Amino acid sequence: MTDNKESIIQELYDVIMDRRANPAEGSYTNYLFSKGLGKICKKFGEEAIEVVISSLNGEKKDIVYEIADLQYHLMVLMAEKGITPDDIYDELRSRR
Question: How sure is the predictor about 3, in pLDDT bands with cuts at 50, 70 and 90?
Fold first, then answer.
């Protein structure tokens, strides 16, 4: 793994996809995939609420922590639905 800010999203997505293809015992990512879309969506929703709460009540470091959790769960959802970071980048570019 590298410490390249520009590639960390793709790197994380690649790890998630690797876990999906090659389950690792004890992997939280594999746990989410094994429970299915409903569980993945529930966790994403919970994390979104935690971002809102920390944004209203927390310090920057707490908000950053919760946003990172939200981003991870979003990427698991993306992987489950066959959506890649490039799909999102392309959509964002089309809006500029």
Answer: low
Tokens for 54, please give them. 């920390």
Tokens linked to 62: 């707490």
> What are the sequence ranges of the domains in the chain?
8-94
The third-level CATH classification (topology) of the domain covering 8-94 is Helix Hairpins (1.10.287)
**Residue 81 contacts by C-beta under 8 Å, 6 or more apart in sequence?**
37
Indicate the residue type of 16. Answer: I
Distance spanning both ends of the chain, measured CA to CA: 31
Give the pLDDT confidence of 18-32 residue by residue, as tens digits: 999 999 999 999 999
pTM of the model: 0.90
Q: Which residue has the tokens 């429970």?
A: 35
